[in-house]
Amino acid sequence: GDSVTQMEGPVTLSEEAFLTINCTYTATGYPSLFWYVQYPGEGLQLLLKATKADDKGSNKGFEATYRKETTSFHLEKGSVQVSDSAVYFCAPHTGGFKTIFGAGTRLFVKA
Amino acid sequence: DTGVSQDPRHKITKRGQNVTFRCDPISEHNRLYWYRQTLGQGPEFLTYFQNEAQLEKSRLLSDRFSAERPKGSFSTLEIQRTEQGDSAMYLCASSTAGPSSGANVLTFGAGSRLTVL
């Protein structure tokens, strides 16, 4: 069945460090790929998306590229801030018309 | 539009009781989803509707769970004979379908937290 695997957390970084959170998936059809974020005390919200191979989604300095050959959608940011501390979820939208979520990766950024 | 609304925000109940949650999606969204999230895990898909039709239901969903979306607007999720293992955050999300750039982007409500004693 469809599944998604993302890097286990927590990830602890200092401000201005480089961030990578790995995500790989298995899915039927040609999924759209999403990253959602959950800030402390808030609900899930969209961070970025990509809908076809080699597309790059970007928002708030975060980027992720749709790699169809490796079925991956790794999240990156060149310089993290304390305000980026949150839980990040990789989420393919599969051919079954539903979005499935990874377990989430908690990021702590220290000043 | 005020986004996706869920009610109640918190529910504490005793084992064996029935509970019902309500979700009001964004009015233009024709798809509505229910997810369950436990501590330290990602949202787990339960079921989804396109308009009033329930198109998919997770195999993990026991027959104690039922969801409706009678007029293609709000939805209810009922859990009968609750068990302690049902304790979780129940999330509702809505989206549009089709070729638009916003298609399949989920807008989540704040969730309904269930505690079964």
Short description:
The complex is a heterodimer of chains A (111) and B (117). Chain A is an all-beta fold and 111 residues long. Chain A has strands spanning 3-6, 11-14, 19-21, 23-26, 32-38, 45-50, 56-59, 62-65, 75-77, 86-93, 105-110.
In terms of DSSP E residues, the strand content of chain B is: over 45%
What structural class is derived from the secondary structure elements of chain A?
mainly beta
**What coarse outline of chain A follows from CA principal-axis ratios?**
globular
Q: How many distinct beta strands of chain B?
A: 11
Main attributes of the structure:
heterodimer, A: 111 residues, mainly beta, five-stranded mixed β-sheet, four-stranded antiparallel β-sheet, 48% strand, globular, B: 117 residues, seven-stranded mixed β-sheet
What do you see in this structure?
The complex is a heterodimer of chains A (111) and B (117). Chain A is mainly β and 111 residues long. Chain A is 0% helix and 48% strand. Chain A is built from no helices and 11 strands. In chain A, the strands form 3 sheets. A 5-stranded mixed beta sheet of chain A has the order 2-11-10-5-6, with no helix packed on it. In chain A, strand 7 (56-59) and strand 8 (62-65) form a beta hairpin. Chain A is globular, with a radius of gyration of 13 Å. Chain B is mainly β and 117 residues long. In chain B, 0% of the residues lie in helices and 48% in strands. Chain B has no helices and 11 strands. In chain B, a hairpin with a 6-residue loop joins strand 4 and strand 5. Chain A binds chain B through residues 32, 34, 36, 43-46, 49, 89, 91, 93, 96-104, and chain B through 31, 33, 35, 40-45, 48, 50, 55-56, 91, 93, 97, 104-106, 108-111.
